[in-house]
Input
Amino acid sequence: MQPVIFRWGLFCSLFAATAACADLPRDPAGTTERVERTGKLIVGQISGDNLSDQSAKILRRVAQRTHATVHIRQGAGEQLLTDLEEGRIDLVYGRFAKSSPWSANVHLGPPMGRRKIVGKDERVPRFAFRNGENGWITMVQREIP
Output
């Protein structure tokens, strides 16, 4: 009798684990779904950090995938990153160092441009994402060459 109970328990555990992984990576705050539903991709652009041709192309591809229109909001880094953390905007574009104090609060994507290996204190163009929005992060970063 015990082997049957053990097998049943093992089956239920494996089924639950598989079901939990079905939609990975996830967006706990629903960024991808919201962008698709509203048709708006809201991007904060730090004043003085102009969008490169490459970053504009990435935004166009993401907008196309999500059937959204890109809306740019320029502003100070502190305010834009706060808005990102609180879910009022979807991405922030600017020049960030991996050692930035903000790296504890937001996900800093890979450097854009030809150089992929940079020092941790070197400020380079990249996107910042809301922490934990792994589906959104994965989708956008797939568009970065």
Residues 14-21 have pLDDT under 50 and may be disordered. Helices lie at 2-21, 31-38, 53-66, 77-85, 134-142. The domain at 26-142 is CATH 3.40.190.10 (D-Maltodextrin-Binding Protein; domain 2).
